[in-house]
Amino acid sequence: MNAMSLRASSPAKIAAQRFSFQQSLNPIPPKSAFFRVMPQTHVLIHSPFKQLSLPAIKSQQDGSATVSETKTSEGDALKVKEWEVGMFQDEVAASQGIKIRRRPPTGPPLHYVGPFEFRLQNEGNTPRNILEEIVWHKDVEVSQMKEKKPLGMLKKLLDNALPVRDFIGALKEANSRTGFPGLIAEVKKASPSRGVLREDFDPVQIAKAYEKGGAACLSVLTDEKYFQGGFENLEAIRRSGVKCPLLCKEFVIDAWQIYYARVNGADAILLIAAVLPDLDIKYMTKICKLLGLTALVEVHDEREMDRVLEIDGIELVGINNRDLGTFKVDIANTKKLLEGERGERIRQKGITVVGESGLFTPADIAYVQEAGVKAVLVGESIVKQNDPSVGIAQLFGKDISS
Ligand SMILES: O=P(O)(O)OC[C@@H](O)[C@@H](O)c1c[nH]c2ccccc12
């Protein structure tokens, strides 16, 4: 065949990879379902290829792609479409009240213009808040990681991945054993709002102390740039023999990251409703199910909670007391989102709710428990203690280890 391999970062290759990726996943509902659920997103997934003769793009078994030499103008068409689609994605998100834009608003997507820093100097391309900055950076980071480890490669690694453990089961078990909300203890070195929390940071040692102190599950931050975490921490903790199921704490914007979390030892993964439109949440929770992972869907306000309640199959919802845009923390947020009819719906649906962030004292734990949570996610107050297992006992006002 008269075909050539495209340069690693060329737009046609990225689009072709997306195409082969979409094609390779089973849980996508049929076209008609996309139209019913959200017509715009059908376009988002399929339109870049409509004006092209599809056989021109051939995905290879290893996840790479080749494009026929005669189709060079199609490369340009794809470039333009990618840009349009990027814009469109933000419009869909905005209609759902999502303020976070997936990419800088002007010009073609980052893939074609070089490093993030370069774009930041352009007027109009400044992120509006820290969450948006993280997401824009993540977009670049993920596309680079995907080039190094294409989905096809990750899929092969799935065969030898360690078994998934039951995340929600562990939380429920701890809840009935201790009478307190099940603890997800976070292995967190630093955050953009608090800076470095612990200088002598040994993730495996901290994980073991958490387990000893009675944590039901652990959360491991994998973002490097903003939280000084890493996938190597997740992997090391998983391989250390710690039995608590592990949550991969990431800013997921691409389903590839879910596969990557799974092959690095995660049992659960965070999906942030402030970043992901409804269809992304639906699609990603399906991929989680396919891989056996638990999705922890995080919300911060009523609108996000209501969106999530419309999506079937969500079993674990986290209420973040911290606004990821402004860093403001208020534990009354958990109570507010669990009140009245909304709380009733959550109970009827059998959703397990996690109270997240800003929990420091036994009174804080009692407050969110009273509000209806069956689990809590805690980082700062316990990771800062010399012995994090003692930190857990102080947090609950009681030794919960046995
Ligand atoms: O350290 P805290 O205040 O106990 O918070 C832990 C956890 O809730 C927080 O790290 C968190 C909640 N949602 C997130 C999303 C991304 C990064 C971090 C988070």
Task: Using the CA coordinates, give the radius of gyration.
Answer: 22 Å
Quote the beta fraction: 5-15%
Ligand kinds: indole-3-glycerol phosphate
Shape: globular
Number of strands: 13
Q: Order of strands across the widest beta sheet?
A: 4-7-8-9-10-11-12-13
User: Terminal Cα separation, in Å?
Assistant: 66 Å
Model regions low in confidence, pLDDT < 50 over at least 5 residues:
1-72, 117-122
Largest sheet: 8 strands, parallel, barrel
Helix content: 40-55%
Q: Specify the structural class.
A: alpha/beta
Tally of alpha and pi helices: 18
Mean pLDDT value: 82
Pfam families: IGPS (PF00218)
GO molecular function: indole-3-glycerol-phosphate synthase activity; phosphoribosylanthranilate isomerase activity
InterPro entries: Aldolase_TIM, Indole-3-glycerol_P_synth, Indole-3-glycerol_P_synth_dom, Indole-3-GlycerolPSynthase_CS, RibuloseP-bd_barrel
Catalytic activity: 1-(2-carboxyphenylamino)-1-deoxy-D-ribulose 5-phosphate + H(+) = (1S,2R)-1-C-(indol-3-yl)glycerol 3-phosphate + CO2 + H2O
